Every structure is written in C-alpha cells, then in structure tokens.
Amino acid sequence: MAEFVEQYTLVRWPVVAAFVLALGIVAVRLTRPARGPRQDDTATDGAHLLMCLVMLAMLIFPADTHPHAVRGVLTALIVAFALLLAERVVGRRAGTRIDGAAAMGYHLVAALAMLYAMGGHGAGGHTAAGPSWPAAVLAVLFSLDALVAAATARRGGGWHRFAHPAGAHPLTSALVPHIVMDIGTVFMLIAAIGR
C-alpha cells in the first residue's frame, strides 16, 4: 500500500489536509465544555480522533509505518468499537437512552474495512493477493455514504444525524470528520485493489 500512497501524491496530500482538518474539528469538540444536556458523543469523537491519527500516520509516513503495528492498532480499535456498540445496544434494550449505536457501528465497519485493506501486507511488503470485489463493494458503499452525508448537510444533515447525533450546526458536528473518514477509507480500499 505504501507504493500506491507514494505514487499518487496529488491525491495523497489533499487527503492528508482533509484529515488534519478533521483532526482539528474533533480536537475542538473533545475539549469543548459541556453546556446543558450535551448531545455530542465523546466516544464517537474519540473514535474519529483515533481513526484520523491512524490514517495520518499511514498517509504521511507510508514507507515507515509498519503493517503489523497498523494491524494491531486497527484490531484494538475493532475490539473497542465492538464493545462500545454492544454497550449501546444493550443499554437501548434495557431502556437506558444511549445514542450513537449507529455511529459506533459505522466506526466498527470502517475499522474492519481498513483492516481488510491492510490484508496481504507483511513485514516484507505485499504477501498475498485476494479477491478485489469485496474492497470494490466497500469502496462504493463508503463513497455513497460520503455523498449522502454531504448532500444532506444543507438540510441539517438528516442522514448524518441518524448516524451521529451531534450539536446544532452540521458543519461543526461530526459531519466533516465523518466524510473525511469515508474518503480515507475509500482511498485505502482503492489502494488495496490497485496493489
């Protein structure tokens, strides 16, 4: 994947800039004091923060990012997101209002897609070839999600609010980080197809 990322510099650096923007938005959201009944989901913001950091490391240092380390981090994130999703589903069924199950499900699927895109890479580089159709299907799904989220931004981010209950204005909510995560995931999946 490092070769793909380094080869497409004109795409790589705008994606890096998008992730830096998303990281800034998430950092502001996480440091903002809660006012009244806070609707923002700090677990979702934390998930965006961690996923942005992983993607930035892979994009800025593609040749130096060790594939086993990235797979380890993604595996840990998958376990954490699965536990948070289970907590939210169980809480909702128990009658406790826990929003954000869809958001945590999204992050779980995104982390799984990234781990899938990392498949076939070992310490010495590319190790195995697998079918590319799952990566293509996932890339299309994440592309559609980004388009739908962006299209609903003018109408208050209705689709996005379903996935990420957030503050009053969609552009100050998790909308931008969500779309950036979609773009980054698509970039990784295309890199997986192109290897």
From TrEMBL:
It comes from the Bacteria. The keyword Transmembrane helix applies. The chain crosses the membrane at residues 12-31, 43-63, 69-86, 98-119, 131-153, 174-194. InterPro entries: DUF5134. Keywords: Membrane, Transmembrane, Transmembrane helix. The keyword Transmembrane applies. Pfam families: DUF5134. This is DUF5134 domain-containing protein.
